[in-house]
Request: fold
Amino acid sequence: MINKLVEKIKKTHAPIVVGLDPMLNYIPEHIQKKAFEEYGETLEGAAEAIWQFNKGIVDHVCDLIPAVKPQIAMYEQFGIPGLQAFQKTVDYCHEKDLVVIGDVKRGDIGSTSAAYAAGHIGTVKVGSKCYHPFGEDFVTVNPYLGSDGVKPFIDVCREEKKGLFILVKTSNPSSGEFQDKLIDGVPLYELVGEKVAQWGNDCMGESYSYIGAVVGATYPEMGKKLRSIMPKSFILVPGYGAQGGKGADLVHFFNKDGLGAIVNSSRGIIAAYKQEEYAKFGSQNYAEASRAAVTAMAKDIEEALQGAK
Reply:
């Protein structure tokens, strides 16, 4: 799957992943109203509003981007109906030939980790039949439990040709409470990066590994160091836009070939119509605002990369 991601980035010239992380207050009133008229102010109504909101955005940006990243918590909060909306979103994005990164941040040990891996990027056997339950192409993984928690995911990656993005240095302000702690003079996030590179060497695609890393855009200097530690690992970069990251902050996350990173923006794109810059579109044309935001983001990144050459 890493090979497909690379090819789609080359084709679109946009190393962008749209975070499909819908909150109800992002969803225009006309969409909510229609969903509630059909299902009532229920979990099912909320899930329907989310699904229709997502579909509108995907329809308007799928030709511009290589990938999407639905954050499962935004769906889980609405229970089983929310998870059904998550599944419909994953399936629809695949119909549009988008790579789907399931932002699930799972991490456990033994059979529990294996079950998470099977459910999201692998297969489960039911009698004589096999199923791909959620069917994402990549998932995010928390490595805090060590190799025991990551190996079951790696095993599934090999079997299914899927991928991982392992949390290395996250974009949130308090990430340094643990991730920046020095161990024998070396920050913990660097040690995790070294481990990701080691795991990745055993799971290579054509030019990049199936095993990637999550490194926040809000820490560009750390990104530069981690890029050198993990030359064959794709880096998923959250924190662009709403969290303060800009194109100029991103150049160190890429390799000299212009590849090696994919940048996430969530509410900066899906709720673009709420921003002053895109307010002219209005809530009825929220998806057109999202398309304009993707176009602006692609231009910002491209200009930053060109300027760095």
Observations:
- The first helix runs from residue 2 to 12.
- The chain has twelve helices and twelve strands.
